Amino acid sequence: MRIIRFSLIIALVLAATGCARSPEGKPEERRLLVTMQVRGVINPNYYYYVVIDNDDEPTTGPEAVVAGPGFVGEHATHFVHFGPLSGATYRLARFEANHIAYEWLGSPVYSVNPLDPGNPPNTLTFAIDLTSILTPTQTSVADIQTLEVNFITNDRPPPTDPNTTEPRQYDALGDGSSNTFVSFSAAPGPPITDTSEGLGSDGLEPEDDTADPDLDIVDWSVQIQQL
Q1: Do 82 and 124 form a contact (C-beta atoms < 8 A)?
Q2: Is the per-residue pLDDT at 5 higher than 60?
Q3: pTM above 0.90?
Q4: pLDDT tier at 103 (50, 70, 90 boundaries)?
């Protein structure tokens, strides 16, 4: 039942944003469409991140930090946050070199706020233009070959003290004992979900691996769209 509901959400999002017309077209007119669903509801007091790594190294990617400063390791270039850091809305940011400091870049080009009446209260949905996540070594979207993405939830703000041992509740892709990410081509294509072929019989993210339902990620989707 969970997969059926999530597939319906994806279909509605595709209708709202416009389906990918063709793999052909200008690379600058490509978007990354993302959805993430939790077992409970999106809590405006919690910290939700979709972390992106645009370094064309598909074997490395963003992994959640479970002890120590920040919320993600070194293999990350950008993130979209929903929660207290962004005033309970979506904001895109670019990491600085230490992966603790960051610079806000603006808002996604499309989003669905789970706190608004009538919207799914357990789902984050947004789209960003790939031009917004270019790195200093890239001159155009055509230079982006692969992307790596992780979904990270936290019950506390990211600590900045390098000596911190502050405990936190969290979830991310993986089964709680492992920490992983999804790597995919930056070419337009169909949605990639937790049940997509090649991600294992059980997917990357099991349900109930985090006690707090508002942090427990149960489904996700990423897609490169050609406008």
Answers
A1: yes
A2: no
A3: no
A4: very high
Tokens representing residue 13 in the block = 């999002």
Based on the number of CB atoms within 10 Å of its own CB, is 210 exposed (0-12), middle (13-18) or buried (19 or more)? Answer: buried
Please give the pLDDT value at position 1.
31
- Element (DSSP H or E) covering residue 226: strand 217-226
* Residue 145 falls in which region: left (phi positive, over 0), alpha (psi -120 to 50) or beta: alpha
Contact call for residues 55 and 146 (beta carbons, < 8 A): no
Distance separating alpha carbons of residues 187 and 9, to the nearest angstrom = 22
If we measure between CA atoms, which residue out of 53, 36, 136 comes closest to residue 99? 53
Q: Read off the pLDDT of residues 145-156 as tens digits, 9 standing for 90 and up.
A: 999 999 999 999
- Residue 19: name the closest of 190, 184, 142 by CA: 190
Per-domain boundaries in the chain: 2-226
Phi then psi for residue 171, to 5 deg, are -145, 155
Q: CB 183: neighbour CB atoms within 10 A?
A: 16
Q: What percent of the chain has pLDDT over 90?
A: 64
**CA–CA dist 190, 225 (Å, integer):** 8
Where in 7-160 does DSSP place strands (E)?
A: 30-38, 47-53, 78-83, 89-95, 102-106, 110-112, 123-129, 146-154
